[in-house]
Amino acid sequence: FFYILFTSLAIYDHITSTLLHPNFPISDPLVKSKRKTSRNPQEKDEERSFPDQNLQEEGEYVLDSAPPPLTLAQKLGLVASPAPGLTEGEWRQVKARSIQQGESGQPCAICREEFLLQPQVLLSCSHVFHKTCLQAFERFSRRKCCPMCRKEQYETRVIHDAAQLFRHKCATRIQAYWRGYATRKRFAILRKYSSPQDKHQRRKFFEEKLQELNDSFVRYCHTDTEAFLRDINHSLSSSRRVFQQLERKCVSEPQESDWQRIQSQVIQRDVWDCPICLTALCSPGLPAEAETSQPPRGRRLVLLSCSHLFHQPCLEAFEAFSIQTRPPCPLCRSAYHKKRI
Predict the structure, then answer these.
(1) Number of structural domains, the chain?
(2) pLDDT digits over 267-297, tens only?
(3) 123 in the same domain as 183
(4) Of 56, 129, 277, 327, which has the maximum CB count within 10 A?
(5) How far apart are CA 337 and CA 259, in angstroms?
(6) How far apart are CA 82 and CA 238, in angstroms?
(7) How far is CA 258 from CA 8, 10, 48, 303, 311, in A?
(8) Is 226 part of any domain?
């Protein structure tokens, strides 16, 4: 009788200590929650700061490293004793299996969010979750089983694989952006100073270069347009005077024999109309034109050294209306000497 009673008490103790959630005892579920509120706030701060320090150190550690004490039923052999904790080598195998499955690269199976830099835990069944998500799952389910494979009495280990993957992804993205920026900047420099091979692109390149030169010239030029135009007119007038002086030096006044030769050239050309007024010409020393055209009387003729013949009033009017001090011939635009005939 005493053995049966002792065995019953041992099994009851095992059920109350292991199968039920420690935060919800049978006697009074609110007693422990009330006791939690009466703890010192300084102790809470110490408990909160402990995981943060380990997270900053990037070290892995087992959360439930200390196994619970054996119950009386487990000591008597009535209930199987829990398996011993995983060794460091076994944890490495579990982690390798988790990496092979890509658990850290996938979202958390509880909240369906990425791990990013938040602390994560690895279970002995090779599944990975947020640390806070697993704690909330255990608190609301009132049992300790994996949310994925429903394995009970698992061990948890804090890891930082997802944080390392996130940092690697961020570094890769930053490097890609920086390389893209450096490449675009170098391409812009090459495009600015090197002409492309394509025909249309090359034409556009030189058009842009010419436009840049024009803009720079206009930018550094004097902004007074009227003064700029006056300088151009002054330069043109100076150039004309120089050319006129050269023509005067080159053209000498013909002699009497030269005038006879020029007059014979006029007769050979056989043109008897004034190039200015387009009327018939007549000279006492020259043969008359055909009988069909009767030249007007009383208008004297002028023979130029370039062998062109004009009415004297027409040539004088042309010289009066010309802006040059010594205008050229109306036909050949050369400097001349004139002789009345």
Answers:
(1) 2
(2) 888 888 889 988 888 754 554 443 434 444 5
(3) yes
(4) 129
(5) 10
(6) 115
(7) 157, 154, 123, 12, 21
(8) no
